[in-house]
Amino acid sequence: MTKDDRKQNVQSESAPTENFPQQASGETQAQEPGHQSEMNQKPITIRDDYRGSGKLTGKVALITGGDSGIGRAVAVHFAREGADVAVVYLDEHEDAQSTVALVEGEGRRALAISGDIGDPQFCQQAVQQTLQELGRLDILVNNAAEQHPQPSITDITPEQLERTFRTNIFGMFYLTQAALPHLKQGATIINTTSVTAYKGSPQLLDYSSTKGAIVAFTRSLSQSLAEQGIRVNAVAPGPIWTPLIPSTFEPQKVESFGQDVPLKRPGQPAEVAPAYVFLASEDSSYMTGQVLHPNGGEVVNG
Question: Has 207 been annotated as catalytic?
Answer without folding.
Answer: yes
